[in-house]
Amino acid sequence: MRILITGGAGFLGSHLVDLLLRGMHIVTVLDDFSSGSPRNLSHIRSRRFRLIRRDVANTPFARYDRIYHLASPASPEDYGRRPIATLLTNALGTRRVLEMARRSGARVLLASTSEIYGDPLEQPQREGYWGNVNPIGPRSSYDEAKRFAEALTTAYVGQYSVDARIVRIFNSYGPRMRADDGRMPSSFIVAAIRGRALRVYGDGAQTRSLCFVLDTARGLIAAMERGRPGSVYNIGRPDELSVLEFARRVRQAAGSTSRIVFVPGRLQDVHRRRPAIGRAMRELRWRPRTPLGEGLRRTVDWYRGSLGDGE
Q1: Which residues contact 3 (CB under 8 A, 6 or more apart)?
Q2: Rounded Cα–Cα distance for residues 106 and 108 (Å)
Q3: Which one is catalytic: 142, 156, 233, 303?
Q4: Overall domain count for the chain
Q5: Which residues contact 282 (CB under 8 A, 6 or more apart)?
Q6: Looking at the structure, do residues 131 and 255 belong to the same domain, yes or no?
Q7: How far apart are the first and last CA of the chain?
Q8: Is the residue at 216 inside a domain?
Q9: Are residues 125 and 197 in the same domain?
Q10: How many whole angstroms from its chain centre is CA 251?
Q11: At how many degrees (to 10) do helices 94-104 and 140-160 cross?
């Protein structure tokens, strides 16, 4: 199949590229490198691969069988610095992707986020939960951008019968997440390897559900191939872990003696995050399979090679 991946030079997108190339597909990546990097794809030597540097809102028209729409800043550091670009990427970029699909008959997957649920009052979060989101808060550029992208995708399904589905991705970790990404996994792992203090915001009791990146990428493929048009699927690992406990697990995996220190909490931080994945298990026949210990070992090994053993 002919496949387009917007944002394919990013952390998650690059792993998706690898899996699809192994499936003998023809893969085109479109990325403006504002948060992704061509280094994430530098290992690829396939003639079935093409890389285009372009903003997603200006994606050149071509006929594809599948479009994975991942283009968007995803870390608080990135969308905090570029709130307007984040909003416009998810509005104009999503519209461009959906128009291409409408004209060419491509099947589309929108990569959305667990941030849709805000600071949830429901545990675990099911796809039918509407969320607890502040539309003008410090995370609103990302939250509301993705909520709009979901609404636009749903409208194209209803009005134009575009074959599109939505995945809400929960916290992922693994190789190729930028060292300066600002998200919890990279921050903790880099600090542990370099012998620096692991900075835990607040008291560390807030929870996250960590899914290894290859499991997440396989979930996207399952949703594309087996998901229903107009449906939403949570993709994540349903094991809830406190931030403090994750810091301890990272330190153990890295064999580090780094201290864990507590710093003032972030404004309007999410207190609990845990996906309900029953729909994904039933309809997509998908569930995460990589234990946290194994995933952390593989991730720490990659960072050691990437950072140069603490240099």
Answers
A1: 20, 25, 26, 27, 28, 64, 65, 66, 67, 68
A2: 6
A3: 142
A4: 2
A5: none
A6: no
A7: 43
A8: yes
A9: no
A10: 24
A11: 20
| Cα–Cα distance measured from residue 302 to residue 308, given in angstroms and rounded to the nearest whole number | 10
Percent share of the chain, pLDDT over 70: 99
- Which residue in the block uniquely carries the two structure tokens 């994975």? 68
Query: What CA–CA distance (Å, rounded) separates 282 from 58?
Result: 37
One domain, residues 147 and 182: no
Enter the tokens of residue 126.
Answer: 């099911």
User: pTM for the complete prediction?
Assistant: 0.96
Distances (CA, A) of 11 to 38, 304, 311: 11, 17, 22
Cα angle for residues 289, 233, 132 (degrees, 5° grid):
110
Residue 87 and residue 124 in one domain:
yes
Query: Who's near 117: CB < 8 A, 6+ residues apart?
Result: 125, 129, 131, 132, 133, 168, 273
> How far is residue 291's CA from residue 273's CA, in Å, rounded to a whole number?
18
Max alpha carbon distance in the chain (Å)?
A: 57
- Please name the residue ranges forming H helices in 82-139: 83-88, 94-104
Domain assignment present for residue 109? The answer is yes
pLDDT, tens only, 179-188: 999 899 999 9
Residue-number span of the structural domain to which 114 is assigned: 2-170+212-235
> Is the domain of 76 the same as that of 99?
yes
Has residue 282 been placed in a domain? Answer: no
Residue 19 is assigned to a structural domain of this protein: yes
**Is residue 117 annotated as part of the catalytic site, yes or no?**
no
Quote the pLDDT of residue 308: 66
| H or E element in which residue 18 lies | helix 11-22
pLDDT digits (tens, 9 = 90+) for 26-80: 999 999 999 999 999 999 999 999 999 999 999 999 999 999 999 999 888 889 8
